[in-house]
Amino acid sequence: MPLKVRDPLRWCRERPEAEERRVPLAIDLGIAKTNKYASRESGDTAEVVERPGGGVSGVVVDGQGSGTGAKALSLLLTGKAVALLKEGVRDGAVARAVHDTLLAYRGGKVSASLDIVSADLKHGALVLTRNGTSPIILRTGDDVRSLPPVEGPIGIYPFTRPGVERFPLQAGLQVWVFTDGVVTAGKRAGMPRLDLESVAGALMDSELDARAQARRLLQVAMDADSGRPGDDMCVLTLRILAPAGDDAVRTLHMSLPGT
């Protein structure tokens, strides 16, 4: 039987021309997070980095446990991810490298969840790269749906791989990322699980920007825990908008509570 030789130029010929075009879209990204009640440090860390080819990536890591140890771990892993993304490494390869780092660092005894959300303007795609236990809420057009996790946390098994999903980048697209503290809010009080899909869907239709939306949903989760979060909580939302005029100014806002 003759061998089938892979054509190295096939991908080049079949690649859509749209992948090489700059997409005239605006990105609105917001993050809100808080620590577990009575804990000074949050094991959830979120970072934002510009992509070399255009666009941004948001990285969210939930280190196992809470407190100082979990914070040190999540800082280590987000730092690794951000450094690789700045170098142009593909998101799936970044997730694998972060997993390998944790596995080597802690010998398979500590896990972490990892989410990378990328608005890739060079290729006109929203890329979701995920290792964890929490769902993601995605809006495409008028459709709002929950995407369950497809791969488990990083750091435990040698050959763990990320789940990677791609969606065309277009105005009206929005994605929500949560850590497990948000998903399980209210559980200690015996309350039903938050309907994150409904809450996020309502906020998407509001006039609030991404930062205000993330803060509002975080508050809903905190209220479910009676204002005393049972776990570290982090919410990241990213919206794709039609550009407003020719304004080329980029802004970033941050607010940190006193310690």
Mind explaining what this structure looks like?
The chain has about 260 residues and is of the alpha+beta class. It is about 25% helix and about 25% strand. β4 and β5 (about 125-130) form a beta hairpin. The longest helix has 19 residues, at about 70-85. The model is unreliable at about 1-5 and about 10-20 (pLDDT under 50).
Task: Note the topology.
Elements: H1 10-14, E1 26-34, E2 44-50, E3 55-63, H2 68-86, H3 91-106, E4 112-120, E5 125-131, E6 136-140, E7 143-147, E8 163-168, E9 174-178, H4 180-183, H5 196-204, H6 210-224, E10 233-241
Antiparallel strand pairs: 1-10, 2-3, 3-4, 4-5, 5-8, 6-7, 6-9, 9-10
Helix pairs in contact: 2-3
Number of strands: 10
Order of helices and strands: HEEEHHEEEEEEHHHE
DSSP helical segment count: 6
Major sheet:
5 strands, antiparallel
- Largest sheet strand order: 1-10-9-6-7
Q: In a few lines, what is going on in this structure?
A:
Helix content is 26%, strand content 27%. It is of the alpha+beta class and 259 residues long.
